[in-house]
Amino acid sequence: MKYQFLSRDVLKLIAILSMLIDHVGKLFFPNILFLQIVGRLAFPIFAFFIAEGFYYTINKVKYFFTILVFAVIAQIPYNFLWHGLNVLFTFSCALFLLALWDGAKKLALTEKIILRIISLFVLVVLICLSLLTNMDYGWYGLLLPVFFFIFRNHVITKFAIFVGVTVLYIMQNLWGVVNLCFDNFLQLFALLSIMLLAFYNDSYKGYKQLKYVFYVFYPLHLVILLLLTLI
Question: Which residues contact 67 (CB under 8 A, 6 or more apart)?
Fold first, then answer.
């Protein structure tokens, strides 16, 4: 369609810039909330392309282990900046859930039901694990790529679920909070990413060379930020 003019590379570059602005704001300018507002665009765009990557990749096992390897590498500088597991671990778990869900499609009805039940059990286990390890974005990060994949061809439903789970995530984080402030509602600005994702055109193929840039950027920018904090 005419209004769908953004390629995956352009959207990923927007997400990278947004993430960088967010992390710089958190570490060096925590009082400038505008930087973190801009940063809310990054996660849903990355979650969207985790689902897209799973859909398009020929080798899903290689895709999973590529994300997992970079998660392990990124965890080293991440440990010095924040607590818990970085977002690539969240996406690795989401890819595992996607593999279970997608694998059930080719099975007979009985086997499909069994695998769906197993998938729900694994989801519960991963949610518990995300809580114990303080995994970045927790259950929200686990489910968003899965919903983006399942409802890939249902635009309105996909974005409506995105709105719903985002509101639930904010409500969960408000549990027990006595003094509400603007910071508690920052994640609402993630919904602005819908305006960008609506312009995505999956017929525009990305440059293969850039794929590795996106993988490397996450751990690399954490190393650079860590070094800047030490200066």
Answer: 50, 88, 91, 92, 95
Name 94's Cβ contacts closer than 8 Å, sequence gap at least 6.
47, 50, 141, 142, 143, 144, 145, 146
pLDDT in tens, the chain (231 residues): 556 778 999 999 999 999 999 999 999 999 999 999 999 999 999 999 999 999 999 999 999 999 999 999 999 999 999 999 999 999 999 999 999 998 888 788 888 888 889 989 999 999 999 999 999 999 999 999 999 999 999 999 999 999 999 999 999 988 877 788 888 899 999 999 999 999 998 876 666 667 778 889 999 999 999 999 998
- Cα–Cα distances in Å, from 213 out to 70, 162, 206? 12, 27, 12
Output the six-digit token pair for 184: 């508690």
**C-alpha span between 209 and 214 (Å, rounded):** 9
**CA–CA dist 179, 159 (Å, integer):** 30
**8 Å CB contact between 21 and 32:** no
